[in-house]
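User: two proteins, same treatment. go.

Assistant:
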Amino acid sequence: MVVLNKIYTRTGDRGDTALSDGTRVAKHDPRVEAYGTVDELNATLGLCRLHAAGDLADRIAVIQNDLFDLGADLSRPNMQADDQAGYPVLRIIDAQVDRLEAEIDAMNADLQPLRSFILPGGTALAAHLHLSRTVARRAERRATELLAGGDVNAAAVRYLNRLSDWLFVAGRQANGGGTEDILWIPGASR
């Protein structure tokens, strides 16, 4: 087990950082932006867990662990070199995406039918889940930028896409199964 006693290293003081394969890049590099946004998403899920209980809190904890896997995945370019790494490279796998889909289906089965767009809000938990959903969408946009360049695990992008759906459905579930959703009323402020 690695011990992380030294928090600062001074290696990034000039505005660059190391990817997990040792490559140094600017801290504003699209890859760093992608896994940094995943880290931000993980922090917002920590807020969600403050308001969640039971099974939902447990499922959020699993997702938070997945997001560390995802950050590790995104921080390692050149998937073709994974075999030469000398250690097991951590990548998001389809089973993680499948788990999210199964959980979405189970949560969605108990919800009120959706007949309108909904506004983020309702309960404190729902509001935090909707905030996390928007950060997940931003992380997905950053990851798809890498995917367009051909150097990212496609399962990582699928995971982010499903996670934003998961967070939407969980937000509705946190709003009394959708009964406390705040419906969008087009043109209501005219």
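Protein 2:
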Amino acid sequence: MRYEGNIFRPFSEANSYLLQCTIGCSHNGCTFCGMYKDKKFRIRPLSEIKEDILMAAAQMGNVEKVFLCDGDAIAIETSMLLEILAELKNAFPALRHVGTYAGPISILKKTMPELTALRNAGLTKAYLGVESGDDRLLREVNKGVGSDEMLRAGLNLRDAGINLSSMVLLGLAGRGERSVEHALATANITNLMKPEYLAALTITPVPGTILHTRMKRGEFELPDAFETLEEMKILFENITIDGLKFVGIHASNYLPVNGTLQKDREKMLSLINGVLEKRDPSLIRPEYMRGL
């Protein structure tokens, strides 16, 4: 298999064949993200992608899961994506899952018939970086859309039948009142969007990003571990939809929390409250064990 640059994928795609369809991210402007700063976005030629699929079939056999890299494969023209999905289905008869990161701008550029066609062709799951439901914060971090557009992007994926994993960032608003506003707005957009999964990560300023520069200048104050747990607690207290699978075991988080809302709500709150009451650093993940 051939790859260009660093390759990123959600941790739930650990057992997937990673197929690099684009280089970099089509937006690549978020102030907190350093994942694709070394790449200029482009779509790989279809012929190369098909060659990679054949190589993977020869080396890996009949895989069941595929993840389309890099940061926003859904930005590819629908006709080309349909060809890629058809090639995957031909190469891997046992294929049951194809996932991709999906940027809100790219989603909104596709019509509902296009999204539905992609789902029918085998695109089963999309990971949407919602980050926050706070409209002002989304614009401050340069997501490219506001909260209304972000909500519409998520709902369009769900309406097309694509399994939606919403990703949010604890601590993105910094310390103070904005932290509470961020958490409440994120709970609200989650209730409206109704994703199948909600994955919470904790902000980790990356050198070379605008957010990291702002932090060094004193313009952004990074919340401590317990303040980010307060945000997680607000999420659990204000998310009202049922059957939502919460995934909080990412390496960036100070406290691994998993469960299904509302079924496990009290157990999850009890875990967080126990840590917040003691404020004992030994109860949380140490800095040296955190990662992106």
